[in-house]
Amino acid sequence: MNNILLVDDDRKLTSLLRELLEMENFNVQVAHDGEQVLSKFNSSINLLLLDIIMPRKNGIDTLKWLRQQHYQTPVIMLTARGNELDRVLGLELGADDYIPKPFNDRELIARIRAILRRLHWKDTEQQQTREAGTPSLKVDLMILNPGRQEATFDGTLLELTGTEFNLLYLLAQHLGQVVQREYLSQEVLGKRLTQFDRSIDMHISNVRRKLPERQDGQPWFKTLRGRGYLMVSTA
User: Fold this and answer.
1) Are residues 15 and 106 part of one domain?
2) Are strands 178-180 and 228-231 parallel, antiparallel or unpaired?
3) Model pLDDT for residues 168-207, shown as the tens digit of each residue
């Protein structure tokens, strides 16, 4: 059974969400502010549902703390509808996805299941990769090891979230080819791309920021407006 930590200061909402999630066979813990997350969080948590606007320690600061502690647990941010700044900031700090309030219950469950499917697929893929001895991918001085979900550059480990690694690995698999944003969203985030959804773009931006300069002097990615992204092949 998957363990979800639900974090929101709206006690009526958390009570209703907890009942909904438990009906969907999730094990749910509840916190009402970021300070409680610090005391309740542990490695058995499979996913966080994290509200942004909370007293004491808000969702943005809580997410920042999680990533600073090197926890790569998937996080879905609960944001105010129309607040683009909160969504962008959450994605920049390493949130996997966001859903605006008020939201449809079925959409929330679908988003949670999509992320958890990717999480379980990753664990299965890692085991299969280790057993099959699948080779790592190398681009310039960067090595992507799917069996360990690790990326290194010239021997130095890169601090990537699971979503960022999966995105980078998928682009490396299509080295020198344009990959459509719609395909990236479906394969990496497990959701269809909507008109104003910038999640993939923000994850690409995060990866760009975390990667050092290439030895060959080439950019890591090219953006093809209206089409998608391309990882530049080595000479």
Assistant:
1) yes
2) antiparallel
3) 999 999 999 999 999 999 888 878 887 778 889 999 999 9
Residue 95 lies in a domain: yes
We report the CATH number of the domain holding residue 86 as: 3.40.50.2300
DSSP code for 220: S
| List of residues 6+ apart from 166 with CB closer than 8 A | 118, 122, 187, 188
The model's pLDDT over 91-145, given as tens digits with 9 standing for 90+, comes to 888 898 888 888 889 889 988 988 888 776 555 544 554 444 556 899 999 999 9
CA 172/CA 185 separation, integer angstroms: 16
Whole-angstrom distance, CA of residue 77 vs CA of residue 74: 10
Strand order in the sheet with 27-31: 27-31, 3-7, 47-51, 75-80, 97-101
Distance from C-alpha of 108 to C-alpha of 177, rounded to nearest angstrom:
33
- DSSP code, position 83: -
Q: How many helices and strands in the chain, by DSSP H and E?
A: 8, 12
Which token pair is 8?
């929101």
